[in-house]
Amino acid sequence: MPDLSGKVAIVTGCASGIGAATLRRFVADGARVFGTDVNAAAGRALCEEVGARFAVQDVSDRALWPQIVGEAVECFGRLDILVNNAGMVSGAGIGDLEDEAMFAAWDRVLAVNLTGTMAGCRAAIAAMRENPGGAKGAIVNIASTTAIAPLPTDVGYSASKAAVRMLSKSVATWCAKQGLAIRCNTVIPGATHTGILDAAEQDMPGLMAAVAATSPLNRLADPAETAAAIAFLASDECPFMTGAEMLVDGAALSIHPGF
Ligand SMILES: NC(=O)c1ccc[n+]([C@@H]2O[C@H](COP(=O)([O-])OP(=O)(O)OC[C@H]3O[C@@H](n4cnc5c(N)ncnc54)[C@H](O)[C@@H]3O)[C@@H](O)[C@H]2O)c1
């Protein structure tokens, strides 16, 4: 089990699904955690239950990011880990909506999934550079298997998650070139049983069973299984892993589509 004792972590989208599982896992592994979410009630309730701090945050509000990071540092004295987990689907393929609705959906999903992640990396790096004892930290960004094999039914989601993969690599290599011991890696979950999939099922009935069947394991992931990979990348267990990607997809992308 990765040891996160003494580490200070921010987890976005902590109120449900993979974020909630990550928050629980980090606390169990000894970290002091600052959770954020737009869902104030659920986020606060979970943080109170596990002994984490909570702040309401829309990750797409870039002006808020330095404030959130500042609050975490003020609370705990440093920042070691950021998990950019908050995300949403837009539920529209390229020709599915009229212009106004299409571009509104596109702008929103990119603002949350991509710009929110970029703004988080930027604010976290600024804080991690100033950590007592020297610059050090680990950022874990959450993409999706749709970044590799896209959903025809959600162009904005697939495109934003593909961009998150390159964002992570650019952040990782920038930090390395600057001589900063700040790593940035991507976890690529496959179909995981969370609220986002419940919501997508509403738009695309049958999606849940169909995506479960894409894994040779023939099931959805439990969010705790994804959180385990996030905890590993966030820990000091893997100092040479940066700019890397970890698939947590039950081998869904490893099998020939005909089987
Ligand atoms: N569930 C899956 O099958 C799956 C697969 C691949 C990737 N992912 C990714 O995993 C991450 C977590 O998703 P999940 O499956 O746990 O979904 P979820 O819907 O259960 O949780 C997402 C959380 O993010 C919060 N959120 C949404 N928009 C936000 C915003 N603008 N600012 C702050 N918080 C916001 C929601 O309130 C919610 O608590 C997402 O980035 C998602 O794209 C999920």
Report what the structure shows.
The model has no long low-confidence stretch (mean pLDDT 96). 48% of the residues are buried. The chain has a single domain (8-247), classed as Rossmann fold (3-Layer(aba) Sandwich). The protein is globular and about 50 Å long. It is of the alpha/beta class and 259 residues long. The two termini are 34 Å apart. The chain has helices at 17-28, 40-50, 65-76, 99-129, 155-177, 195-203, 207-214, 223-234, and strands spanning 8-12, 32-37, 53-56, 81-84, 136-142, 181-189, 245-248. It is built from 8 helices and 7 strands, in the order E-H-E-H-E-H-E-H-E-H-E-H-H-H-E. The longest helix is centred in the middle third of the chain and has 31 residues, at 99-129. The protein binds nicotinamide-adenine-dinucleotide. Nicotinamide-adenine-dinucleotide is lined by residues 12-13, 15-19, 37-39, 57-60, 85-88, 112, 142, 144, 189, 191-192, 194-197.
What is the CATH C-level name? Alpha Beta
Helix content: 40-55%
Which whole number gives the mean pLDDT? Answer: 96
Global outline = globular
State the order of secondary-structure elements, H for helix, E for strand: EHEHEHEHEHEHHHE
Number of strands: 7
Give the tally of structural domains: 1
Strands across the major sheet, in which order? 3-2-1-4-5-6-7
Please mark out the parts with pLDDT under 50 across 5 or more consecutive residues, or reply none: none
